[in-house]
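Worked Example 4.2. Consider the chain below.
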Amino acid sequence: MNLPEPLEASSAEPLYVQLAGRLAAQISNGQLAPGVQLPTESDLMTAYGVSRITVRQAIQMLARNGQVTSHRGKGTFVARAGLQQNLNALQGFQDALRSQGVEPDTELLEFSPSAGRIDPQLPQGLNLPVRLRRRYCLDGAPFAVVEAYLPVEAATLGEARAKQLPVYDIVQQYMGLRIGRADVAIRCGRPSDQVARELGVRASANVLVMERTSFSGTGQPCEHMRIHIVPERYTFRLSLPGPLEIARALQPTATAGG
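Applying the procedure from the previous section yields the following structure tokens:
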């Protein structure tokens, strides 16, 4: 890297604050673009003539400000703008990412023609035996695990196409079904031990969980999906006409003896 202007050792401003300011300016002017990996600690030490502690303090300051994210064993990256999904439209998870110019790294964790038959997490009454599990990563770090259940006709899909096709493409293009509507629920919850390992979070951490059941034009369930998302990376949006009267929507729960 080109040697920058040296930091001012005689300044009342600590060296780590000066270094954080230099890096923040490069992020603001686009010299360090979203998703780009920052120079290594050693490179920053050499470029600015500072200690490792100074570099780490500067990066911690940028991380607290939400400008960078650090991933153990992978490095530090410029933070991307928050991802979001509009719930007003029928849109697949992967399509929502691509519409924001984001092409995540995807990993097929499982493709089973029959696992849905014995999966207790599949809601009762849904005959969706094919189970598909994927992990999505950005900047080298996992941020979502998707579990999708599909009709038996999807069993012939095979792993090769399961790796490539988004779930809605499987339903509409491969199976030839038109999606007429979808029921969506979003909650905060604890991940299973398996999902926690796949996301790289503690089992005691909370994640966003979106569950969606899609129905064909004739009203038949044709897909059920459960998405576990690292909450700092994602926002769901919904536009509604008129006032949103939350208080009236809350239903009291009866308690024992009361």
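The CA atoms of residues 143 and 230 lie 5 Å apart. Strands lie at 68-71, 75-78, 83-86, 105-112, 130-138, 141-150, 179-189, 207-216, 221-229, 234-237. Compare this with Example 4.1 before moving on.
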